[in-house]
Amino acid sequence: MAGIGFHLKRLFKPDTFLDNFRAVVYSATIASGPIFFSILCLALLGLFAKSGIEPMQFDIFTVTIVYIFAFSLIATGTTQLLLSRYLSDLIFAKNYESIAPTLSTALVFTILIQAIFGLPFLIWLNASFFYRLTAFGLFIIIGCVWQLMVFLSAVKNFTSIVWAFFIGVVISFVLGYFLAQSFGLSGLLHGYAVGQFLIFLILLWRVLSEFNSTLPPTLAMFAFMKKLPALILIGLFYNLGIWVDKIIFWYSQTGENIDSFMYASSLYDNAMYLAYLTVIPSYTYFLVKVETEFYSYFRSFFQTILNKESLGLIESKKEKIGNVVRESLLGLIKVQGLVTIICLFYSDEILLALNMSHLSILIFEKALIALFLQMLALTLMIFMMYFDIQKELLVVGFVFVVSNIILTAFSLILGIQYYGYGYLFANLLTLSTAYWYLNRHLADLEYNTFIKQVSRA
Fold first, then answer.
1. Which of 145, 144, 153 is nearest to 86 (CA)?
2. Distance between alpha carbon 226 and the CA centroid of its chain, in Å?
3. Where are the chain's structural domains?
4. H or E segment at 257?
5. What number of CA atoms fall less than 13 Å from residue 379's CA on the CB side?
6. How far apart are CA 236 and CA 251, in angstroms?
7. Which residues pair with residue 185 across a beta bridge?
8. Rounded to 5 degrees, what are φ and ψ at 367?
9. First CA to last CA across the chain, in angstroms?
10. Which of 13, 84, 238, 280 has its Cβ near the most Cβ atoms within 10 Å?
11. Phi and psi at residue 256, in whole multiples of 5°?
12. Per-residue model confidence as pLDDT tens digits over 138-182
């Protein structure tokens, strides 16, 4: 799936600031589009649309969006890795005709799953039927956008992807603002949902126009699911691990009931969400620089084996893979480390400018370090996916979610000064586990490669 990174890499040119700036914008959008633009839109609506509704109603709106993003990501996380792997196999086999039918099947499956998990929005919210119906529909739309992001990594015309998010955010903001003045809370959510639906339609059009096909929808991905069931659990564990500490805080003594089943812990949530914005540079760097370089050496190693080259050459290629992994980690440490250090240094000024409390500053500082560790852990996990060591990845994902649950609960018992340490140490433990497994696999890479083929045979 490194293909789009190579296309983006070609945009970067020496001594041309505007071209490089454009490349950075494209890369950042593709790497973190749904999250970044949604946070931007919510921030703008918070600044301008509050005049049309009561503060408590705006809280209901923002928490609704958070719940939609959180639980749609957890629900679709079960199939995203599977889709990525299946799509990669189709592209490798140059079976482009099957991409559109696979997308159709994936979207129908996603709509069904999202409709089931989205029923609480339709049934239990203490809001108007129009608001509940819009929240239910938005939950389905966002789930479909998550799945489309998998297919967009194979699209060559990424300019349209950037424009899709830009136009969608503008529509969400403008309609949300004006409808809030006339229809209050329901109008605000409906305006936001229209913009998100437009993003979905543009992205869907982009994929279908690039991979048009006359084939009917196919169920082949479900047969593929039986061969690689571990990918379902890996995706579930990782996405649940990202959100489980927030969920624990929502329903703890720090949480506040916003509406029906929806809770929020503003002290913890705001600091965490703000810290998440700091990893966008690393996502961009990984997409354009790290993954493309790793893939080049990765492919070269296996091509050497397929060409039946000498053991000495194979060992030389293996050593280069180890070197590129270490250099990739070092590069990410430099990029994310610089951003993290700057944000730590100016954390007081940043959060005070946003009218956040001193306690939020302490959580924000821990969150910055936690996300620095999480970015490194995610990089190692993606490298592990390339080597197809699924049992080890399953252990890493399990360590992430379980340690986050235990350590977050423990931090709540210890008291407010320890909030955030649970997520920090869970990421440290996950990073250590991933590093140990990957390092062990790389040490015997040639043996592991050959023995895997023998076991499959």
1. 153
2. 24
3. 3-228, 268-291+332-456
4. strand 256-259
5. 32
6. 21
7. none
8. -65, -40
9. 26
10. 238
11. -130, 130
12. 999 999 999 998 887 777 667 778 788 889 989 999 999 999 988
Output the pLDDT for position 297: 86
Which DSSP state fits 125?
-
- Please, what is the angle between helix 266-276 and helix 358-386, to 10°? 50
Q: Is the pLDDT of residue 121 over 70?
A: yes
What is the rounded average pLDDT for all residues in the chain?
87
Q: Which residues contact 292 (CB under 8 A, 6 or more apart)?
A: 2, 5, 6, 9
The reported pLDDT for the residue numbered 124 is 94
User: What phi-psi label fits residue 15: left (phi over 0), alpha (psi between -120 and 50 degrees) or beta?
Assistant: left
* CA 168/CA 44 separation, integer angstroms: 14
Helix %, strand %, coil % for the chain, to 5?
A: 85, 0, 15
Question: What six digits make up the tokens of 99?
Answer: 């991409």
In whole angstroms, give the CA distance from residue 98 to residue 233.
Answer: 25
Residue 114 has pLDDT above 90, yes or no: yes
Handedness of CA 224, 226, 230, 232 (dihedral sign): positive
Q: Let me know if 443 is exposed, middle or buried by CB neighbors in 10 A (0-12, 13-18, 19+).
A: exposed
Provide mean pLDDT across the span 394-417: 97
Most confident of 178-187, 247-256, 320-329: 247-256
Asked if the model's pLDDT at residue 38 lies above 70, the reply is yes
Which of these, 6, 165, 203, 163, lies nearest to 91 by C-alpha position?
A: 6
- Number of residues written out for the chain: 457
What's the one-letter identity of residue 248? Answer: I
CA dist 280 and 83 (Å) reads 24
* Residue 453 clears pLDDT 90, i.e. is over it: no
**What is the predicted pLDDT for the residue at 290?**
79
Q: Which residue has the tokens 């015309």?
A: 157
